[in-house]
Specification:
Blueprint (H helix, E strand, L loop, with lengths): L3 E4 L5 E5 L4 E2 L6 H11 L10 E6 L5 H13 L3 E7 L5 H4 L4 H4 L6 H9 L6 E4 L2 E7 L11 E6 L13 H10 E9 L4 H10 L2 E6 L6 E6 L2
Parallel strand pairs: 4-5, 4-8, 5-7, 8-9
Antiparallel strand pairs: 1-2, 2-3, 6-7, 9-11, 10-11
Helix pairs in contact: 1-2, 6-7
């Protein structure tokens, strides 16, 4: 499937799929969406604590890179697992402007290192940040009581509804430890119902710019 590098509303880049008319991030701003949904609504709940993160959709590495930047400020030890069925090509990753968009050019080598790391193998980005990239279909995830936080960043319901059904959220519920949290940019009624059906407690939050609402779910 053809992939194009495009600029979003806040100046940061993303990948656009013309065939689906779908992008990896919000057209209103990739960086601002990532911060709003995954950092402010998710990671911030664990300030000062060790956190195991499961990202559903490693994609361009934006969420991982932002989490790296934030873990240093928040004094967090992060065990990060990014799952991706169709990895971004190295030449595509090289065109992402996240270090400059985040005013973190001194961390450019970290972003490059994340993409260069071997798949299926845990690697230390630093003493406090471990990254494992898994090339895996989301339907094949089988972790049990492994994570504190899920970044659910799959392609939208319009193009891949099968990634937003009860079976997938059951896997997310099982993968989370008690007290774990799942955050996603989406807020469709059917998605909320699927989360509730598997046992999550779900709340609506204000969405990122350009989107009215998002969902946050808790495993009590």
């Amino acid at each position: 499937m053809k992939r194009e590098i495009v600029q979003t509303g806040d100046g940061s880049t993303t990948i656009h799929l013309p065939e689906w008319e779908e992008s990896y991030h919000s057209k209103h701003g990739a960086v601002q969406e990532a911060y709003h949904v995954f950092v402010h609504s998710g990671l911030s709940l664990f300030d000062g604590k060790s956190v195991a993160v499961l990202e559903i959709g490693f994609g361009t590495g934006l969420n991982t890179f932002i989490t790296w930047i934030e873990h240093q400020k928040r004094q967090q030890t992060i065990d990060y697992v990014g799952v991706e069925a169709y990895p971004v090509l190295p030449e595509e990753a090289a065109l992402m402007n996240y270090p400059s968009a985040l005013q973190a050019l001194e961390q450019q080598f970290i972003f490059e290192q994340m993409h260069a790391m071997e798949w299926e193998k845990a690697g230390k980005v630093s003493e406090q940040f471990t990254l494992t990239k898994r090339q895996q279909f989301f339907q094949d995830i089988a972790d049990v009581d492994r994570f504190d936080l899920v970044y659910f960043d799959a392609f939208g319901f319009r193009v891949q509804p099968e990634l937003w059904d009860v079976a997938i959220f059951q896997k997310m519920f099982t993968a989370l430890r008690k007290g774990g949290v799942l955050v996603t940019y989406a807020c469709r009624t059917s998605i909320k119902k699927a989360m509730l059906e598997v046992g999550f407690e779900v709340e609506k939050l204000p969405g990122a710019p350009g989107k009215r609402e998002m969902l946050r779910a808790f495993k009590k």
